[in-house]
Amino acid sequence: MKRSLTIIFLLMFTFCFSQNKMLDSLENVINNYKIQDTNYVNLRIKYTARKLFLTPSDTTWTTYVNKTLAISKQLRYPKGIAISYNNLGIINHYFLSDPLEGLNYYQKSYDIFEKEQKFKKYELGVLTNIGLINYEQQDYDKALKSFKTLLDNPENKSKFSTEFYIGNVYGDQKQLDSSIYYYKKALEGAEQNNQTIVIANIKTNLSIVQANAGFLDDALTSTVESLDLIEKHNIEGLRVTAYTNAAEVYLQNNDIEKAEYYATNSLKLNEGLNSLSTENSALETLANVYAQKGDYKNALVTYQKHIILRDSLINADRKLEISRKEIQFEADKHKAISEVEIERQKSIKNASIIGGSCLILASLIGFVLYRRKQDAVSKSKEAEFNAKVSDTELKALRSQINPHFIFNSLNSIGDYILKNDTESASDYLSKFAKLMRLTLENSEKKEILLCDDIALLRTYMDIERKRFNNKFDYTIEVDSELDAENILVPPMILQPFIENSIIHGLSQKDELGLVKITFKSENNMLICSVDDNGIGQKNSKSNKSNDDNKSMGMAITKSRIEIINKLKNTNGTVEIIDKTEGTRIDVSLPMQLAY
Question: Residue 246: which of 210, 209, 303, 208 has the closest Cα?
């Protein structure tokens, strides 16, 4: 079987045969279009789709399509870019006999179409053209696999074209029955869709297969029908192939004149296309025609041309084989590059996941360690504070039951007994015992009522006044706005200051001394004052033997106020004021009510 050229161009949409008048009108619209926008690109694509097939020998198509591609890129119009790539693939594939470059353009077109769902319908055409490359490279198994895959694709609305390609593959594989079967299915679909060019192409290919299968009458019918369509619709792209096939069919039907006519005209028309395969087939047929006619001289010359061309084609086949291997090499290279890129992306992804996980884990561990450290510091500070509270409370208790005070008090009681002043001894002892009991009872309390604290201070002052032979008087005043039975104060907070006033201020004075104790409210604070008319701080400092006791009492009271400030978030203070005569101590405490 002489090989039939299959010239069906898949231009992304169903091809509609057009008349020259319509093409002239379309070309006129394009020439007068003033703006290079997407509509302009679409018009150029439409014009290419309709005229490219009618003028395949026009060498300006590459320039025309490249300009469409450049405008599409400038507009960032993916549909225009992808279709232009496919058209360049067709030109290189079919017109320039450069399947490798054609495949390159097809692949670029497919890479764009596969990225967006709306372009899925265009993938079929590009994939078909890629399958045709395999077919032309005589890699029939790959071509058949591709076409049958397309045949099962629900998006394939032109299955008759795919069936036509399958018929071609089976024809080249000498599986004539299968070839005829698919050609007839393709013909049925093409006629239903009124695809004139496809019908003409199918019939000319079918005719040569039928002739080789021995169905000469059917072959002759198919040939005549194909030639009629070509003549009627001026399908120049098919004319050379159809003439070559017609010459062979007529020769096998012993119609020598028509065989010679079509073989001769096929060679003339092929001069423009320069298709070696077609020329070789026509020369072989024409040599047989001359032999049938008895023109042995021309038969010999023609046959010699056929042999020379056949040898040339054998070399071309070798080049074709090289080309096929180059294509396979490029495909393998792209596949290898893709696999390497996929592995690289996987490595980056895994490294990012591992790095991110490690960072998160390190952050969590750091946070836990930080919190533990903060908790430890907080607990340490709390423990230090509690220890300070306990120590302060213990020192406060010790200051309130000062051993010197107890010793002196017991001595005073002993003196009363020695003087036989039992009444004074009994009164002193009674007050001393009451002071000790109340002190011990209140030592377990953080706060007591102001009235109870005043009673405790009176008892203490009475004992001290009696011990110092009434050398001083004292007064205790509570502001009328204060309710002593509803105000809470730390027990005996003023005792160290009163003790200092008596011992260091009044005991060393010859005149009668006076201690004034007052309680008043100021800015929601309770101001407790101890005011004496003693010798004052400066004169008292000369008595160094008492400095330690004085400092300790002051330090303990200040520490108690600091603790209160921290627990209640207040700003209590102790202020020592030196007067012209005597000293005044102001203790500021937060006002706290019992209820």
Answer: 208
Cβ atoms of 454 and 484 closer than 8 Å:
yes
Chain centroid, CA 417 distance in Å: 97
Contact 540, 554 (CB under 8 A): no
Residue 531 backbone dihedrals phi, psi, to 5 degrees:
-120, 120
Place of tokens 């003023």: 494
Are 547 and 541 in contact by the 8 Å Cβ rule? The answer is yes
- Sorting pLDDT into bands at 50, 70 and 90, what band is 4? very low
Chain Cα centroid distance, residue 570: 52
The amino acid sitting at 386 is: N
Are 436 and 401 in contact by the 8 Å Cβ rule? The answer is yes
**Binning pLDDT at 50, 70 and 90, where does residue 215 land?**
very high
Tokens of 90: 């067709």
Beta strand spans in 404-485 (E): 448-449, 472-478
Q: What percent of the chain stands above pLDDT 70?
A: 87
Cβ atoms 497, 400 nearer than 8 A: no
**Average of per-residue pLDDT across 72-77:** 93
- Which of 128-142, 180-194, 344-358, 451-465 holds the top average pLDDT? 180-194
Q: Are strands 472-478 and 513-522 parallel, antiparallel or unpaired?
A: parallel
The answer to whether 305 touches 283, Cβ cutoff 8 Å, is yes
Q: CA 304, 306, 311: angle at the middle one, nearest 5? A: 100
CB 528 within 8 A of CB 587: yes
Do 583 and 537 meet the contact criterion of CB atoms below 8 Å apart?
yes
Cα(523)–Cα(31) distance, rounded to whole angstroms? 96
Give Cβ neighbours of residue 103 (< 8 Å, ≥ 6 apart): 89, 93, 130, 133, 327, 330
Could you give the CA distance from residue 352 to residue 171 in angstroms, rounded to a whole number?
55
Distances (CA, A) of 524 to 14, 346, 351: 95, 71, 65
Task: Say how far apart CA 281 and CA 21 lie, in whole Å.
Answer: 35
CA atoms of 168 and 161, how far apart (whole Å): 11
CA separation for the pair 556, 549 (Å, rounded)? 11
Taken as a whole, the chain contains a residue count of 595
Determine the Cα–Cα distance for residues 118 and 114; give it in Å rounded to an integer.
Answer: 9
Give the whole-angstrom CA distance, residue 257 versus residue 188.
32
Query: Closest Cα to residue 503, out of 460, 529, 540?
Result: 540
> Which H/E stretch holds residue 46?
helix 38-51
